[in-house]
Amino acid sequence: MTSVQRPSSRLVGVSTKMYFDIPTTKSYLSKVLSSLPSSLSARVFLLPDFVTLQYCVDTAAGSPLIIGAQHTHHEDKGAFTGEVSPLVLAQAGAKFLEIGHAERRRLFAETNDGVVAKCVAAARNKLTPLICVGEVSKEGGEEKAVEECWEQVHAVFASIPKGSPVILAYEPVWAIGASQPATPSHVVAVTQLLRQKCAKEVGWTGDDLTILYGGSAGPGTYEKIKDGVDGLFLGRFAHDPAAFIRTIEEVQKA
């Protein structure tokens, strides 16, 4: 397999989804900030809920912790009651923007076209899109998985400025919330093929493209799949701040 340039630094982060209340978020953030490795070579991010996002941005100011959002509308302004503007998220200090998670596709009928529109909105507001991709079923093997992932994101690359940074979080739908992640060989094969496809088809490589794994990932995961991915996108396994810090250290050392 032809070698493709990978990003210059690894990346690891966590989404709190809708599990944390305000006191829990404040406590979690305090523990994470006080425990980050002093010699931090990896980039680290946190995606809190909307209500605590501004608090997290303000509290993390001056630290290496990047704060992002879990969702956005595709328009900056308008009569969209209950939605959140990407412009406002950028003004609040968010840097990353999660888009296309399988839960939002399943529960809120989000589509590939919607993902494209939100990625355009992210690029317009200088937010880095973190796009969740993954096959629905275990059946079909690595080639089929890559086809499904590519179908979910290929139009994004045609719709945003060349050179815009993109993060792909590979999360097989069948592995989300599972007790065991996908096998390391499967993850490595799929992400290596996906990186090749991004390079060949649209020319996204190096620091412009970071590929993470996120399907039931946690401590002990990264060492097994580092040949394919540039870091981890964590969920409930990292809601324990000690587990999050341990995973950051593992990603740095691997």
UniProtKB/TrEMBL annotation:
<dbReference type="GO" id="GO:0046166">
    <property type="term" value="P:glyceraldehyde-3-phosphate biosynthetic process"/>
</dbReference>
<dbReference type="InterPro" id="IPR035990">
    <property type="entry name" value="TIM_sf"/>
</dbReference>
<keyword id="KW-0324">Glycolysis</keyword>
<keyword id="KW-0312">Gluconeogenesis</keyword>
<comment type="similarity">
    <text>Belongs to the triosephosphate isomerase family.</text>
</comment>
<protein>
    <recommendedName>
        <fullName>Triosephosphate isomerase</fullName>
        <ecNumber>5.3.1.1</ecNumber>
    </recommendedName>
</protein>
<dbReference type="InterPro" id="IPR000652">
    <property type="entry name" value="Triosephosphate_isomerase"/>
</dbReference>
<dbReference type="GO" id="GO:0004807">
    <property type="term" value="F:triose-phosphate isomerase activity"/>
</dbReference>
<dbReference type="GO" id="GO:0006096">
    <property type="term" value="P:glycolytic process"/>
</dbReference>
<comment type="subunit">
    <text>Homodimer.</text>
</comment>
<dbReference type="InterPro" id="IPR013785">
    <property type="entry name" value="Aldolase_TIM"/>
</dbReference>
<dbReference type="GO" id="GO:0005829">
    <property type="term" value="C:cytosol"/>
</dbReference>
<comment type="pathway">
    <text>Carbohydrate biosynthesis; gluconeogenesis.</text>
</comment>
<dbReference type="GO" id="GO:0006094">
    <property type="term" value="P:gluconeogenesis"/>
</dbReference>
<comment type="pathway">
    <text>Carbohydrate degradation; glycolysis; D-glyceraldehyde 3-phosphate from glycerone phosphate: step 1/1.</text>
</comment>
<dbReference type="GO" id="GO:0019563">
    <property type="term" value="P:glycerol catabolic process"/>
</dbReference>
<keyword id="KW-0413">Isomerase</keyword>
<dbReference type="Pfam" id="PF00121">
    <property type="entry name" value="TIM"/>
</dbReference>
